[in-house]
Amino acid sequence: MTQQVQVPSQLIIASRESRLAMWQAEHVRDRLAALYPDCQISILGMTTRGDQILDRTLSKVGGKGLFVKELEVAMAEGRADLAVHSLKDVPMDLPEGFELAAVLEREDPRDAFVSNDYASLDALPAGAVVGTSSLRRQALIAARYPHLVIQPLRGNLDTRLGKLDRGDYAAIILAAAGLKRLGLPQRIRSVLAPELSLPAAGQGAMAIEIASGERLDGADLRALLAPLNHLDTARAVMAERKVSKIFGGSCQIPLAAHATVEGDTMHLRAMVATPDGKRSAHAELTGAAGQPELLGERVSELLGQQDAHAILEAIRQDASPDA
């Protein structure tokens, strides 16, 4: 039996203004409009610091939180009621007073190889320049293809594709989900199997953030958004984010975690590496889908037994300023 929820007269969704972010916000808007046709739903487009700072890598300017802070301020000030995020951009610890109310069904979580001249990473010649925004991807590529040159790649999806088309890179690595959502699957020359390029925690998933306990016109926002929550995806990303949280997961750490759910069973794989890919720890385990955080903890313990903490300490030492 479906629980009756009170519906507010209007909802305002905060979103970054990139084409992909707006697609995601519009997708949520349309899903909510179908559920609650009497509710007027609009989108508040915003530019975040993460969108503005394009001359440095995320690992050097503050990491994931740069993409969500302004949206949280809009909610705190009452200018927006909810925010839609790519989950891999959401920090593991949300500020006090905020929560994730729903995680939508996941799109393809894999990394995509994009090139105008080459069919795969294996086809790239020595010295070819590969662009990526992620230390995780950098570490995985460097470990398997030490003959390639890896260069930072910032900007929204269209900007990154433009840099490739301009000839700045022989190939770039992007999330397959974004290309598919924007109707650009033809740009994908090949997808990288998770066994070769383990995805980031939350990759391919969208999340809806709200102010904790927020009520709008008497409506419980969490209950209002509950029909959009996809249980298998929510559980999978909970396990992945648990691993990332335990190891201080951020843009400064090459860390991957990817879970798959089949019925009541979940399989979780995780990896921690140095940015040059020369040292890494890998672990995987199968457990109960209904206990995702426990599985995340157990996989983290296995990583710890494989020297993951020493790897992280080496990363921190390298990142420390000389003076």
TrEMBL record:
Pfam families: Porphobil_deam, Porphobil_deamC. Residues 235-303 form the Porphobilinogen deaminase C-terminal domain. It is an enzyme of class 2 (transferase). Residues 11-214 form the Porphobilinogen deaminase N-terminal domain. Binds 1 dipyrromethane group covalently. InterPro entries: HemC, Porphobilin_deaminase_cofac_BS, Porphobilin_deaminase_N, Porphobilinogen_deaminase_C, Porphobilinogen_deaminase_C_sf. Its cofactor is dipyrromethane. GO terms for molecular function: hydroxymethylbilane synthase activity. Keywords: Porphyrin biosynthesis, Transferase. Tetrapolymerization of the monopyrrole PBG into the hydroxymethylbilane pre-uroporphyrinogen in several discrete steps. This is Porphobilinogen deaminase. The gene is hemC.
